[in-house]
Amino acid sequence: MQLVEQHVIKRTDSRYQAIDQAAFASKNLYNLANYHMRQSFIHQGKYLGYADVNGSYNILRKASPNGFPNGVEAVAVQPVRLAV
Q1: How many CB atoms lie within 10 A of CB 5?
Q2: Domain count, the chain
Q3: Is residue 82, in this structure, part of any structural domain at all?
Q4: Residue 79 · residue 56 · CB < 8 Å
Q5: In 3D, which of 36, 42, 45 has the Cα closest to residue 80?
Q6: Helices in the chain by DSSP H: which ranges?
Q7: Domain of 43?
Q8: 71: alpha, beta or left, given left = phi > 0 and alpha = psi -120 to 50?
Q9: Residue 71 CB partners (closer than 8 Å, separation 6+)
Q10: 57: exposed, middle or buried (C-beta count within 10 Å: 0-12, 13-18, 19+)?
Q11: In a domain, 5, yes or no
């Protein structure tokens, strides 16, 4: 048995809009990372772990902090491994 805790936040709550936007962005970012992992496996036969995908997005965000006004989930990116 697994115990869980549920928090219900009504639309009238002052925090609802911020939480809703964060959840939506989180879902989109997860789906984008999952898409790139699957495409890499299907087309190149190699598995990209979450660390590889996360590293690619962090490099993009640092290289252009104001370049993604809609967030990285709105950009199609092909993650690449860099040897430093």
Answers
A1: 4
A2: 1
A3: no
A4: yes
A5: 36
A6: 16-44, 50-63
A7: 16-74
A8: left
A9: 25, 28, 29
A10: buried
A11: no
